[in-house]
Amino acid sequence: MRNDEIESELDFVASIPHININAFCLSEDTARVFQEVASDRRLSRVNFAIHMGDINAAIEFYQSGVTPALIFLEFETDRDELMEALSRMADVCDESTKVVLIGQVNDVFFYRSLMKQGINEYIVSPINPRQTVHVIASLYSDIDRSLGRVVSFLGSKGGVGSSTIAHNSGWVLSKKFSKNIIISDLDLFFGTVGLNFNQEVVQGVPDAVYSPERQDAMFLDRLLIKHDSDIGLFATPARLSNNPDLSEDSYEKILDLLRKSVSFVILDLPHLWSSWIKSVFLQSDDIVLVIEPELASLRNGKDLIEMLRKLRPNDPLPHVVFNKVDMPKRPEISVDELSDALGLEPITSIEFDPYSFGTATNDGQMISELTGQVKSKEDFIRISRVLTGRLEIKEKKHNILSLLREKILNKK
Ligand SMILES: Nc1ncnc2c1ncn2[C@@H]1O[C@H](COP(=O)(O)OP(=O)(O)OP(=O)(O)O)[C@@H](O)[C@H]1O
Ligand SMILES: [Mg+2]
Question: CA 147, CA 172: separation in Å to the nearest integer?
Fold first, then answer.
C-alpha cells in the first residue's frame, strides 16, 4: 500500500483494543520507531514491550510464558534459517498470537511464502511509525471509512469563545458542507449547547457518563436532541450537582459509538485539565485551540501546543483560531506576534464583535443565521473548510525580523 493511502486510512482507525504487543528488534533504529509507535494515540490502550534480540531470543523468552496478542520480529538471517526458526517459534506461540516480520528482502514471492507459513504480515525495513500503526490497526481494529471525524475545541483560557466557535463551526459544517454532525457538550457544570441552540436540555451527557453499564447505541440515541435532520445535540443540563470525578475512560466508549453514526463529532471541552480530557484528546482526529490575543491566553496556548505535540507525536499539531481580536481600548498582542510566538499560522482571526455575538446568543441563533453582513460568517466557513480537508494551513515559517527582535529583547 502506498504511503499516502496509509496516511488517509489512519484517520479511519477505530481505537485499537486493550491488547499486549511485543517487539523484538535487531537495530536501535527499529527500536526507536517502536517507541514512537507505542506512544501513538491510537494505541493508548495497548500494553507495548520492546526487546532487543532476534527470533531465537524471542523463542527463549516465550519458552516459559504465554505469548502476547501480537509479536513483531526483526530478522537478518537467510530464508532457510528463517523458515526453520519460524517453525520453532510456532511451537512456543499460542494459537491466537499474530506474528509480523520485519526484514530487508523486498520480493513478492518471499512475501507469499511467509503468508503461507501463517505469518500475519511482513514489513520491509526501514519501518516507520505510521505504517507500523497501520499494520497493527489492520490486524486488530476496523478500518472503517464511514467513521466520523472527532474534532475537539478547547479554549486556552476560560471565556475565550471556544464553545461559541465549536457550535458555529459545527452548524456551518452541517448547513454549508452537508455533513451530519453531533455536537457534544462536555462542560458538565456550565455547558451552553442548549442555550446557544435554543433547546431545553433535560438529559444528555451526564446520564451516559455516570452509567457506563447502559452505554450502547440505542441508549445514546434516546439521549440525543435532534436539533434538525443533520444536527444532533448531545448536550449537558448545566447542573452544579454533577459529579466532577470522572474516570479516565468515562467518555471513551461513548465517543466510539457517536462517531459511528455521523461524519463529524464536535466536542465542546471545558477549560480544565484532567485525565479524562487527556483521553478525549487521544481519541480526537483534530483539535482546535481557541486563543485570545493577550498574555495569559498566549502562554497557556504555547504550553498546550507543546503538551499536545508530546501526547500525539504521530499526528498533526492542533489548529489555532484567534478570537476577540481588535477589542477596543485593549492593548493587544498582534496577530503576527501571536503566530510567531506559537510557531503556528491560525486558521483565522475572528474580530471582537459583541453586537453580533451577543445578538446570536440572546436569540439562540448561530452567527450564520443572523441577517445582514457579519464578518465572522466567513471565519466559520474557513474553519469548516480546514476541518473537511479543503484548505490546508501551512506551518508558520519563522520571520527573520521577529527572530532578530526576540534576540534583541532577550539580550536586554
Ligand atoms: N468574537 C467574539 N466577539 C464578541 N463576543 C464573543 C466572541 N466570541 C465569543 N464571544 C462571547 O464570549 C462569551 C464567552 O464565550 P464562550 O462561552 O463560547 O467561551 P468559552 O471559551 O467556551 O468559555 P468557558 O471557559 O466558560 O467554556 C459569550 O458571551 C460569547 O458570545
Ligand atoms: Mg465553553
Answer: 20
User: What is the Cβ-side half-sphere exposure of residue 201, based on CA atoms within 13 angstroms?
Assistant: 28
Kindly state the cell numbers that stand for 280. Answer: 478525549
Nearest ligand (C-alpha, residue 354): 1
Superfamily, domain 149-411: P-loop containing nucleotide triphosphate hydrolases (3.40.50.300)
Domain over 3-140 is classified CATH 3.40.50.2300:
yes
d(CA 376, CA 396): 23
Residue indicated by cell numbers 457506563: 212
Q: pLDDT digit string (tens) for 86-102?
A: 999 999 999 999 999 99
Atom of ligand 1 nearest to the CA of 350: 1
Q: Would you say the CB of residue 162 lies under 6 angstroms from ligand 1?
A: yes
User: Pick from 325, 354, 351: which is nearest to 338 by CA?
Assistant: 325
- The cell numbers describing 174, all together, are 452541517
Q: Is the dihedral of CA 257, 281, 287, 49 positive or negative?
A: negative
Q: Is 366 in the pocket of ligand 1 (CB under 6 A)?
A: no
* pLDDT tens sequence across 94-144: 999 999 999 999 999 999 999 998 999 999 999 999 999 999 998 987 667
From CA 231, how far away is CA 240, in angstroms rounded?
26
For the entire predicted model, the pTM comes to: 0.85
Give yes or no for a contact between 238 and 196, defined as CB atoms under 8 angstroms apart.
no
Chain centre distance of CA 246: 20
